[in-house]
Amino acid sequence: MSKINRRQMLARTAAASTIAIASTASSALTPAPEKSANMVGKSVLITGSSSGFGYLSAQLFASKGAHVIATMRNLPRKEADDLRAEADEKGWRLDIVDIDVLSDASVTKGVAQAEQLAGGAIDILVNNAGIGIVGPVELQDMDATKLAFDTNVYGYHRLVRAVLPAMRAQKSGHIFHISSQLGRVIVPGAGHYSATKFAVEAMGEQLAYELVPHNIGVTIIQPGGYPTKIWQNRNVYTAALRDRVSEERKSAYPALVARMGTEDGSGRNADPMDIPNAMAAILAMPVSERPARRAIHPGRKPQEAINTVAADTQVAWLGGSAFGPWIKAVHNS
User: Fold this and answer.
1) Distance from C-alpha of 57 to C-alpha of 280, rounded to nearest angstrom
2) Which among 58, 65, 258, 290 has most CB atoms closer than 10 A?
3) pLDDT tens digits, residue range 84-100?
4) What share of the chain is helix, strand, coil (3-state, %, to 5)?
5) Is 55 a residue of the active site?
6) Which residue is catalytic, options 55, 156, 193, 237?
């Protein structure tokens, strides 16, 4: 008979209880940086693999022996050709699948294709595809608002709903949500980016509790600012927004409007490989010890204090309830 770990034991206890509510936050153990997972035999689906954290994660996980299903939209495209050529050269097991996270049909079709390629359930989902559109909240028209939430929040939700049935059937899996420092702290003028990432944080934590009985883990990754293409991409969206907003509205926020679409990330020198390396380190940890959140940046991590107090609050509030075993399993308490 296989050994039952603490998370599974708590899950079985919790599964017999009635359900009420769930919410907010959590903290994290910091995995030893020198450890990294051997991913041979694991399937990994990554959204937003055309650049940045998604592209680098596809490279790293494939180099560690995983079967990577790197997804992006608008295929064929050069980024997909480059990634496929590298995989062929290095003998990686890597497939590229067209998924547009804005489309229910595209996600359903793409995940089904990924599961067929993997020969079953996806073992690890990296929800990474996202956008930013900056500027004061009043200037965010409904087109910008809907696009931000549809990509950053509903896109994550679509992928989770698509992969979970097979994950639950195999009673294992791990989901990463790429969030941000701005999922916990707020910078004026950042548009709805914080609002979407706060939603990602809440959705990810609630999932973490609810998936304890299924032995599926969730980790919310909270990067600081890294020099990826998100800056250039958001400038395109932001410039279009700025051009269609009325002069009357823009005149109310001259300083913030002057900054719209001007930052390209060139002043940032942190290594974007920090994010895939952190995920690999987490996957090397025992399932019962994987953190609910991981703040990542070589500089300041202002969200860590919020993570700690929020986790303590969750345990104090619901630790003694019917949800207690789930809450404590997620917070390693």
Assistant:
1) 9
2) 58
3) 999 999 999 999 999 99
4) 50, 10, 40
5) no
6) 193
